[in-house]
Amino acid sequence: xxxxxxxxxxxxxxxxxxxxxxxxxxxxxxxxxxxxxxxxxxxxxxxxxxxxxxxxxxxxxxxxxxxxxxxxxxxxxxxxxxxxxxxxxxxxxxxxxxxxxxxxxxxxxxxxxxxxxxxxxxxxxxxxxxxxxxxxxxxxxxxxxxxxxxxxxxxxxxxxxxxxxxxxxxxxxxxxxxxxxxxxxxxxxxxxxxxxxxxxxxxxxxxxxxxxxxxxxxxxxxxxxxxxxxxxxxxxxxxxxxxxxxxxxxxxxxxxxxxxxxxxxxxxxxxxxxxxxxxxxxxxxxxxxxxxxxxxxxxxxxxxxxxxxxxxxxxxxxxxxxxxxxxxxxxxxxxxxxxxxxxxxxxxxxxxxxxxxxxxxxxxxxxxxxxxxx
Length: 374
Fold this sequence. Notes:
Layout (H helix, E strand, L loop, with lengths): L6 E3 L8 H6 L13 E5 L4 H12 L3 E6 L18 E5 L9 H4 L4 E4 L7 H5 L1 H22 L3 E7 L22 H20 L3 E6 L1 E3 L12 H10 L4 E4 L5 E2 L1 E3 H13 L5 E5 L5 E2 H8 L3 E4 L14 H7 L7 H10 L12 H7 L1 H7 L13
Parallel strand pairs: 2-3, 2-5, 3-4, 5-6, 6-7, 7-12, 8-11, 9-14
Antiparallel strand pairs: 1-4, 10-13
């Protein structure tokens, strides 16, 4: 059915997707008593589809808004028979009047946006439009509809290469590339709308999220998608540097729980880290996955460690990660067929895909200002 400038879509049930859906009901906490109407922007994406699933399982109504530039209807196939799910294909930054979609909505979860580092370096205007202009458009539609809660998916990339571990929310903000910058600008808009207009807003700074349905696009990016496709193809894992770098990997159902906990709370005007509260080396990951390794050059602008301080979210939301790293990796292996059609990267293709990364970030000014001893 066509609307003015947008399309209402229906995901189609697929029996092969049932396993993925069943695997995702892990660490399920923080229910609310009364069903509410919700919007999940980017709800056909990796994290958004898990959040939509969580909300539906709690009895809520879910309206997914997604332009399908990165999201996939297949991520929602196992939810297609749920009468409380509605999917609208919509470009949030187009300037289109969205008042009819937002009417009567209680909670808005804004996850839509563009990810990936390299494309943001080559096309920063596209990222500003999606991650900043799109965020302001959703904020204004939410304000006009007088929604009760607004939760934003921010990025831990705002910290750049931190000076403090575990990294608290008060750490210096030093985005190293346009993706990180535009996600942080989106967060600043969200917190500004909370301050100026009195909207109840929370920003969740997500660390290294992984789980079933993580993106399998042609863009070189998230380590799990790269490694699992390589494992299926019996190719070596391409490890950046020497593999001793660590990441604060947090499982996607824990992240969905954090979004719901934020919406169900009375917290507003706050930015909160969302992570596992631990940090795990890439060498540890390849050991759990099992397979041979080859090494590719370390990239500028990437931290040797991501490791969040989650004391604030524990205190304000009583939220706690539930899925251990070992358990999460096991679930990924059980769902490995999801990456059967994903691109298989090697040293040569990675070198070509990251050429602009080295070109723009491997310069003295890109590494940040010199530290004075004065």
